[in-house]
Write a structure and sequence with these properties.
mainly alpha
């Protein structure tokens, strides 16, 4: 007769406080729903929550999870803006190095296709100017909504063109002048 040990009892489920659950959901929201990454973030802070538990909390508390996502969205967006700014600065530095290398190849007579380089540099310049205008709040394009008569009058008042007396009457006979 052989004696076998009774089957092991399943491990007792850990009970979490409301604050721990909220912290877990907040970490999950901050990690864009990635439960494994949220577990790692929580573990760094000394909180151990299995990723399956985080996923279950999200399923059971969809409204609370969504509310927390909305609550932290401004902070995440501010971080995203900061990262985008840093990425742009880094990319501009690398771009500048590439421009310097292209210039050195041209100066050394080693650029085998200067026309292609000129086109690439022209595109870089145009993009840089457009971005500069956008970042400084200046318009990248100017659109004017005036009729031809108004433009002629404006040019004449600036002394750019001179109108003959009969032209002045025609311009002043427009419906706007009436």
């Amino acid at each position: 007769m052989s004696i076998t040990a009774p089957p092991a009892a399943p491990p007792a489920q850990r009970r979490y406080t409301d604050e721990e659950r909220r912290t877990g959901l907040m970490a999950l929201a901050a990690c864009a729903g990635n439960s494994r990454r949220a577990c790692a973030v929580l573990a760094e802070r000394g909180v151990e929550v299995p990723d399956g538990t985080l996923r279950a909390w999200r399923r059971r508390s969809e409204q609370e999870y969504e509310s927390l996502r909305q609550e932290i969205a401004p902070r995440l967006e501010a971080e995203l803006v900061s990262l985008a700014r840093e990425t742009a600065i880094y990319a501009a530095r690398v771009e500048w190095k590439a421009i310097e290398k292209a210039e050195a190849r041209i100066d050394g007579g080693q650029d085998y296709d200067p026309a292609k380089t000129a086109v690439a540099m022209s595109r870089i310049k145009a993009t840089a100017i457009d971005r500069l205008f956008t970042l400084t709040g200046r318009p990248a394009t100017i659109v004017e909504h005036r009729r031809a008569e108004e433009l002629v009058r404006s040019l004449a008042s600036l002394g750019v063109i001179e109108l003959a007396p009969e032209d002045v009457e025609e311009v002043s006979d427009t419906p706007e002048a009436a």
